[in-house]
Design goal:
The protein is mainly α and 105 residues long. It has a domain at 31-87 and 94-99: Ferritin, core subunit, four-helix bundle (Ferritin), CATH 1.20.1260.10. Helix content is 69%, strand content 0%. The protein is built from three helices and no strands. α1 (3-19) packs antiparallel against α2 (28-53) and α2 (28-53) runs antiparallel to α3 (57-85). The longest helix is centred in the C-terminal third of the chain and has 29 residues, at 57-85. The termini are far apart. The mean pLDDT is 88.
Length: 105
Amino acid sequence: MSDFSGEMHASMEKMTQGMHAAPPSGDPDVDFLAMMIPHHQGAIDMARLALIHGRDPATRRLAEDIIASQQVEIEGMQRRLTTLRRGGRAREGYPELGGTRGPSN
């Protein structure tokens, strides 16, 4: 197995473990966010591996875009998860994603 394949496999295992680390809360919104945060972190980790090992300029640009957008989305999901765990239900500041949809107004 190449270094890339081994590191990619380890990254996916870490992501899967992270997605299942939080016990189900019974709240679909909380559970969704708790699982999506490590899922998006997994995308960042895999994109970093593409930057380390890959050579194709277009793929490298895509990996850079994935890292940037997923970081913004993780921050938004973390804020919303904190709000929901405190009992908030209104759209207080979510989604404030810069990624694919831009800021919400």
